[in-house]
Specification:
- The protein is of the alpha+beta class.
- The protein has a single domain (5-159), classed as Gcn5-related N-acetyltransferase (GNAT) (Aminopeptidase, 3-Layer(aba) Sandwich), CATH 3.40.630.
- It contains 4 helices and 7 strands, in the order E-E-H-H-E-E-E-H-E-H-E.
- It has helices at residues 36-47, 58-71, 114-128, 143-151, and strands spanning 5-11, 27-30, 78-82, 85-95, 98-106, 133-139, 155-159.
Length: 161
């Protein structure tokens, strides 16, 4: 299945704020390799049944997490835990000299503000350290991600690639 993706960007010279809306009893923590298995399961849970579901199993999800962990910037990348379980991630990587949020994933319990909280935390940390802009790449038709990033003041700049 061939999917297209679009690039989105956000100007960080306008300081990001905490998202309005729901709050939860979760804790935000730095992403670490100690969470590898839980991160893989979160990716599987987040992508299952969505446009980004490639039918991957746990082994492929662990490989994907290893790839992300190898390139992420830990100071900006976070996990959200609730009741001892990982429920969301926002990773930050650098591609072609630009910071990107990649990936964002939330547990199947969508619509509780987890993605917005995780990405907002990453955005505030990037802005605090003087990063001027940040990008994201979203699969065209991933309505939930498109909505989330628009709500966080990202603008589509064109096709990715």
């Amino acid at each position: 299945m061939s999917r297209t993706r679009s690039e989105y960007r956000r100007d960080l010279t306008v300081a990001p704020t905490a998202p309005a809306g729901r709050s939860g009893s979760w804790a935000i923590a730095p992403a670490t390799s100690a969470d590898r298995g839980a991160l893989a399961m979160l990716l599987l849970d987040a992508y299952r049944g969505t446009i980004d579901d490639e039918g991957a199993g746990e082994a492929e999800a662990r490989q994907a997490i290893d790839g992300y962990l190898g390139g992420l910037l830990p100071v900006y990348s976070v996990v959200i835990e609730e009741d001892g379980r990982l429920v969301a991630i926002s990773f930050v990587v650098v591609l072609g000299g630009r910071h990107f949020i990649d990936p964002v994933a939330t547990a199947a319990r969508k619509g509780h503000g987890l993605g917005a909280a995780a990405v907002s935390h990453s955005l505030r940390a990037l802005a605090r350290d003087g990063v001027a802009d940040v990008g994201a790449v979203i699969t065209d038709g991933n309505v939930a991600s498109e909505r989330l990033f628009r709500r966080l003041d990202f603008t589509r700049v064109g096709p990715w690639g």
